[in-house]
Amino acid sequence: MRTVFVIIYLALLGLYLFVEVGDSFRRRAVNKILLSSLFLFFGQFWFWTGGFAHGWQYLALVGLFYACMGDALLLFSFGAGGAAFAVANLCFIGYTFCTLHAGGVFLKALPWLGLGIATFFVLFFSATRSEWIDLGNKTGLALFYLLTVTLHELMGLLAAVLLPGAHYLLLGIGLGLFMISDYFLVVYKFKTKRKRALRTNTACYFLGMMLVALSFSVLP
Q1: What is the CB-side half-sphere exposure of residue 72 using CA atoms within 13 A?
Q2: 211/39 Cα distance (integer angstroms)
Q3: Between residues 193 and 127, which one has the greater pLDDT?
Q4: What is the DSSP annotation of 133-190?
Q5: What is the pTM of this model?
Q6: Is pLDDT of 220 > 90?
Q7: Neighbour-count burial of 45, counting CB atoms closer than 10 A to its CB (0-12 exposed, 13-18 middle, 19+ buried)
């Protein structure tokens, strides 16, 4: 089943990289919703059948749902889509935090997490104060959103490094790609309108969500 999912998903992603920058909203919407529905359906299926449905693990399920909702809403409203993704980010923060805590490695991860957060603030304020990127009146919202996506990426990667198992590895890499995609989206929206930046955002995001969904097909 994993092989079928990956083949269909990658074929749709390859197609979407072309229709995304085309003139047909209908083709773009149908293709994007199909991709999102695939990672949501298979992620949920493996979650329920793979022994993950316990306590705090439901946060990941909610995160997948809101990521899918964000994809649909972004077709019509950047603000509404961003709000849905912010909820997804908070859910993934909760999931990765609990993953590190349950695995008994949160204290070991804490110094690296602090270093990563400090690096984020330095880079963010350096980019905005030097006017390398002009976020205008969206600076506060961008800071909050990028901090949330960076947090779950940092904890996901730390789980991949500190905890054994394919679940943590796939989850960490997937969330890492999710974060990279959002940085490219900010660059596309506020600095350049080049198609290359948009396609990089799309490729990183959907590949990341594919890996997040696949991570639930293997037990921790």
Answers
A1: 11
A2: 9
A3: 127
A4: S--GGGHHHHHHHHHHHHHHHHHHHHHHHHS-SHHHHHHHHHHHHHHHHHHHHHHHHH
A5: 0.94
A6: no
A7: middle
